[in-house]
Design goal:
The chain has about 150 residues and is of the alpha+beta class. About 40% of the residues lie in helices and about 15% in strands. The termini are far apart. The C terminus is likely disordered. One of its GO terms (molecular function) is iron-sulfur cluster binding.
């Protein structure tokens, strides 16, 4: 079995940081209406640092694994680092396979690179990340990717 498939299965069978916890400043609930995946995600911040991410994810192995990876790659990181991770994950997942992902930035998230070739599954992988952006927005933070218009390479 491919290493990346094993990582997805490992995260879906033994999700990291699963279960809703307190304290938290922001909570969001998202549903993928295409397939029925659901996630409730809570975030606890201390200033510009994400102290905890907890979630309850019901759905396919891709959405559960993505939530687990999100928690691993967000807890203990600054909002700026979380913004960079989210942008890299979103870029990889919406690239239709052209962006293999940067392990330095997204860690185990590179295991989800193959999902980019299946547009119906991209929503599954992005569901927890959309919930994270909403939960952080409810804390007053903004981790949406910065606009690229006007930038030069």
């Amino acid at each position: 079995m491919d290493l990346y498939q094993e990582l997805i299965l490992e995260h879906s069978k033994r999700p990291q940081h699963a279960g809703l916890r307190e304290p938290f400043e922001g909570e969001a609930y998202h549903v993928n209406t295409t397939c029925g995946d659901e996630v409730t995600l809570r975030v606890h911040r201390d200033g510009d640092t994400v102290v905890d991410v907890s979630y309850d994810a019901l759905g396919c192995s891709i959405s559960v694994a993505s939530a687990s990876i999100l928690a691993e790659e967000s807890i203990g990181h600054s909002l700026e680092e979380v913004r960079e991770t989210y942008a890299a994950m979103r870029g990889m997942l919406t690239s239709k396979g052209a962006d293999p992902g940067d392990e330095e930035t997204i860690g185990d998230g590179v295991a989800l690179a193959g999902v980019a070739k299946y547009p119906a599954r991209v929503k599954c992988a992005l569901l927890p990340w959309a919930a994270l952006t909403d939960a952080l927005a409810r804390t007053g933070a903004d981790i949406s990717p910065e606009p690229t218009s006007g930038r030069t390479a």
